[in-house]
Design goal:
Elements: H1 2-18, E1 25-28, E2 35-44, E3 47-57, E4 60-61, E5 70-79, E6 82-89, E7 94-103, E8 106-113, E9 118-126
Antiparallel strand pairs: 1-2, 1-9, 2-3, 3-4, 3-5, 5-6, 6-7, 7-8, 8-9
Signal peptide: 1-19
Keywords: Signal
Protein name: DUF2147 domain-containing protein
């Protein structure tokens, strides 16, 4: 009986470990200079990275030069739905210190300078 209990406990722990992290998935950005992107966030190393997989102007899909760019870089979980890493803003092609806060189907993503004193944020919506 003890062996069965231990096996069940390990199976539950393994199942929880395989569950997707809240930041994983396809996210829709807010408009930036008239364009919206779909960003796929997936594990990369011990953190999470996000790559632009589709872009839209208005309701029409278009072939942006930013397709395939990694814009969420090395976001490591810091607990409570918070993450820290880097973000690339394609509009100015600059990389900023980044932070993200995931809450349900939305994520507030910020790029910061001056040690985090000045930040610009967007709220992204999770599509899947």
């Amino acid at each position: 009986m003890r062996t069965i209990s231990l096996a069940a406990a390990f199976a539950l722990a393994a199942g929880a470990a395989l569950a997707a992290d809240p930041i994983e998935g396809i996210w829709q950005t807010q408009p930036d200079e008239g364009a919206v992107a779909l960003v796929q966030i997936a594990p990369c190393g011990g953190a999470y990275c996000g790559t632009i997989v589709k872009t839209f102007k208005g309701k029409e899909e278009y072939k942006s030069p930013n397709l395939g760019k990694q814009i969420v870089i090395g976001m490591a979980p810091s607990g409570g739905g918070a993450y820290a890493g880097k973000v690339l803003r394609p509009a100015d092609n600059k990389t900023y210190n980044g932070k993200a806060q995931v809450s349900g189907g939305s994520m507030k993503l910020s790029g910061c300078v001056a040690g985090g004193l000045i930040c610009k944020s967007q709220t992204w919506t999770k599509l899947k």
